[in-house]
Amino acid sequence: MSNSLRIAVITGASSGIGGEFVRQIDCEEHYDEIWVIARRKDRLEALQETVQTMLRVMPLDLTDKDAIKQYGAALAETRPVIGLLINAAGFGKIGKTEDMSLEECDNMIDLNCRAAIDMTQASLPYMDTGSRIMEICSTAAFQPFQYLNIYAATKAFLLRYSRALRWELIPRGIIVTAVCPYWVKDTEFIGTAKKTKDSSYIKSFPLSSKMKSVVAISLHDSRMGCAVSTPSPVSTLHRFFGKVFPDSALMSIWEGLRRV
Ligand SMILES: NC(=O)c1ccc[n+]([C@@H]2O[C@H](COP(=O)([O-])OP(=O)(O)OC[C@H]3O[C@@H](n4cnc5c(N)ncnc54)[C@H](OP(=O)(O)O)[C@@H]3O)[C@@H](O)[C@H]2O)c1
């Protein structure tokens, strides 16, 4: 595999955390190409103006199973070595669970869970010793969250999946890191999450992080081989509380916090 093209693959690269990963990886790591995946082709193409590394733009809707087939076909044709896979595509919806449409529920599960797993499965045959996987989860994975219910459940799923996969891949020398950010305010995530029948169930997003620091810390953690990256003091504290307090206690605290 030594003469193969060495690439990084980043989903959700058309905005927010995914786009910031592309920019920081361009400066700090060396790949022949970065493959960038999201639905908005124009945004992916515009990213090329901000980085030196050659981008391969793949405009795909990852909730569509055919998208994974197209990604797999591109891999089979190019036969690269994937040095880094980052599954950053994801979205959440704030509101009462019974108010969510079936489409919102299914798309959240399809993108945050199925697509992340399918992307990982499709990529694994092309990974080598030293390759890394970063699954972008959330602090929402650390406890059940009423009024962010389905999203939090999808991220809990992804966190569990990432942790077990890490152990399975130790013999191959592939590192898996589950990245668990707290609210990040300078991406499109919160705006998208609020577009629901009634998003007033979560009133504010105090102590939010910024994507630059979330990406810098989580990339560092991935290079250090961490199993879980909590890229802010709030997310680190939340992880600790998630281990020492029962879910019911954390949900009671959240019941107060979400109203403030
Ligand atoms: N911001 C936060 O508060 C926060 C906190 C914890 C974890 N996270 C996680 O961080 C990740 C990145 O979120 P972000 O904050 O950067 O939000 P964002 O700015 O909304 O970015 C989401 C990305 O996902 C892509 N995407 C959405 N639906 C897709 C689909 N069907 N197929 C392919 N790509 C799709 C979007 O691109 P297109 O619209 O072009 O498809 C976009 O590039 C997500 O997994 C999110 O759950 C965010």
Description of the molecule:
There is one protein chain. The chain is an alpha/beta fold. The protein has one domain (6-257): 3-Layer(aba) Sandwich (Rossmann fold). It contains 9 helices and 7 strands, in the order βαβαβαβαβαβααβαα. It has helices at residues 16-28, 41-47, 65-78, 102-123, 149-169, 189-194, 211-223, 233-244, 247-257; strands spanning 6-11, 33-38, 54-59, 81-87, 132-136, 175-179, 228-229. It has a 7-stranded parallel β-sheet, with helices on both faces. It is globular and about 55 Å long. Residues 11-18, 38-40, 43, 61-63, 88-92, 111, 136, 138, 181, 183-184, 187-190, 192 line the site of NADP nicotinamide-adenine-dinucleotide phosphate.
What is the arithmetic mean of pLDDT?
A: 97
| Secondary structural class | alpha/beta
Q: Name the bound molecules.
A: NADP nicotinamide-adenine-dinucleotide phosphate
CATH superfamily: NAD(P)-binding Rossmann-like Domain
